[in-house]
Automatic annotation (TrEMBL):
InterPro entries membership: ArchSynthase1/Queuine_TRR (IPR050076), TGT (IPR004803), TGT-like_sf (IPR036511), tRNA_ribo_trans-like (IPR002616)
Organism: Clostridium lentum
Protein name: Queuine tRNA-ribosyltransferase
Keyword Signal attached: no
Function, as annotated: Catalyzes the base-exchange of a guanine (G) residue with the queuine precursor 7-aminomethyl-7-deazaguanine (PreQ1) at position 34 (anticodon wobble position) in tRNAs with GU(N) anticodons (tRNA-Asp, -Asn, -His and -Tyr). Catalysis occurs through a double-displacement mechanism. The nucleophile active site attacks the C1' of nucleotide 34 to detach the guanine base from the RNA, forming a covalent enzyme-RNA intermediate. The proton acceptor active site deprotonates the incoming PreQ1, allowing a nucleophilic attack on the C1' of the ribose to form the product.
Sorted UniProt keywords: Glycosyltransferase, Metal-binding, Queuosine biosynthesis, Transferase, tRNA processing, Zinc
E.C. designation(s): 2.4.2.29
Cofactor(s), names only, from the UniProt record: Zn(2+)
Domain tRNA-guanine(15) transglycosylase-like: 13-374
Quaternary assembly: Homodimer. Within each dimer, one monomer is responsible for RNA recognition and catalysis, while the other monomer binds to the replacement base PreQ1.
Binding-site list for substrate: 92-96, 146, 197, 224
A GO cellular component annotation in the UniProt record: cytosol
Cofactor note: Binds 1 zinc ion per subunit.
Source lineage: Bacteria, Bacillati, Bacillota, Clostridia, Eubacteriales
């Protein structure tokens, strides 16, 4: 299978593309549905993901290494067989846990020493270990092991961190090449994306992007955003970085974000997105609609016979009322979370389809303006 991103069309900086992978074609821009432990929180199955239009599932290297362990997943034939998903899977590298578990880790040149958040057991993960775990998981796309830098960070620290991330990347590339050449490797065509870092320092970001571009990787991610900076700072960094990444490779904005964030980043040339937001919001009864978010717990929905979002074709909206879903939440029934998560993920996946359609038609700018206006007219209640 060739590893190829084809830029089909541009509207301004916005890109409409197609990415060929060993597990099928990804139409971009795309939102990856986050299944941290090889499952979407909220009782959503792999079969459900197909029904709601998911193209790519994302799982977490660090968490799957802890349980059931990447060796168990390898013994079961890799993530695709384990979770019964035959479309592309992206695994993050564990690098985000370097940021999120900052109280439980120490960063050294060789890698990162963790204490397990489950039982306190000591864990070491460096570039080679991350690649080995992701090879055992046999994902379609593996992410390079990096340090996700906190914001704000001093310029001196950011420079040191980016330099270390570059050294780690060289080790990731060498180890993945080795693993893909082994006879017992499950996915010998596993792809590798490098990650741009640099905090909110545009010059550091640009220099790092230029270095990454020189390495001719399968794709490139912009990391270290959505970690406390303002939306304006995030957009400024994207504007700075994207022009220095290759136009013939996919660009992935990690951990972002809201529907508004996605529209703004698509306009700036981003192809791939992921975020826990739609599933997490759904589990708490916060649901996305054509007119903005609603809180299904509100009493005004107690006898509301309408679906969550009129015109929506998700499984929840096709069959159930707001009143019933509200009742399920109030009664603490598991079905409440399942229906709400299905709805929110469908909303995101369908929005990406609409984005692609409008890019195909040269009408993305009008679509974006209309969406932002409709979402702005109904605030969270």
């Amino acid at each position: 299978m060739s590893k190829k991103y084809t830029l089909l069309k541009k509207e301004g900086k916005a890109r409409r593309g197609r990415f060929e992978t060993p597990h099928g074609t990804i139409e971009t821009p795309v939102f990856m549905n986050v299944g941290t432990l090889a499952a979407i929180k909220g009782a959503v199955s792999s079969m459900d993901l197909k029904e709601i239009g998911c193209q790519v599932e994302l799982s977490n290297t660090y968490h799957l290494h802890l349980r059931p362990s990447d060796k168990v997943v390898a013994e079961m034939g890799g993530l695709h067989k384990f979770m019964k998903w035959d479309r592309p899977i992206l695994t993050d590298s564990g690098g985000f846990q370097v940021f999120s578990l900052s109280g439980m880790r120490k960063i050294k040149e060789e890698g990162v020493y963790f204490s397990s958040h489950i039982d306190g057991k000591k864990i070491f993960m460096g570039p080679e270990e991350s690649m080995q775990i992701q090879s055992n998981l046999a994902s379609t796309i593996a992410m390079a092991f990096d340090e996700c830098i906190p914001n704000p960070s001093t310029r001196e620290y950011v420079l040191q961190s980016v330099a270390r991330t570059n050294r780690w990347l060289d080790r990731c590339i060498a180890e993945m090449d080795r693993l893909n050449s082994l006879p017992d490797t499950i996915n010998k065509e596993q792809m590798l994306f490098g990650i741009n870092q640099g905090g909110c320092y545009e010059d550091i970001r640009i220099e790092h992007a230029k270095h990454l571009a020189s390495l001719d990787m399968d794709g490139y991610a912009i990391g270290g955003l959505a970690v406390g900076e303002t939306h304006e700072e995030m957009y400024r960094v994207i504007d700075a970085v994207v022009p220095h990444l290759p136009e013939d490779k996919p660009i992935y904005l990690m951990g972002v974000g809201t529907p508004e964030n996605i529209l703004e980043a698509v306009e700036r040339g981003v192809d791939f997105f992921d975020c826990v937001l739609p599933a997490r919001n759904g589990r708490h009864g916060h649901l996305f609609t054509a007119n903005g978010k609603i809180n299904i717990m509100n009493k005004k929905f107690e006898t509301d016979e309408r679906p969550i979002d009129e015109g929506c074709k998700c499984p929840a909206c096709k069959h159930y009322t707001r009143a019933y879903i509200r009742h399920l939440f109030k009664a603490k029934e598991m079905l409440a979370m399942r229906l709400a998560v299905l709805h929110n993920l469908y909303f995101y996946n369908n929005m990406m389809q609409e984005i692609r359609d409008n890019l195909d038609n040269g009408t993305f700018a009008e679509y974006k303006a209309a969406k932002l206006e409709s979402w702005g007219c109904k605030k969270d209640k």
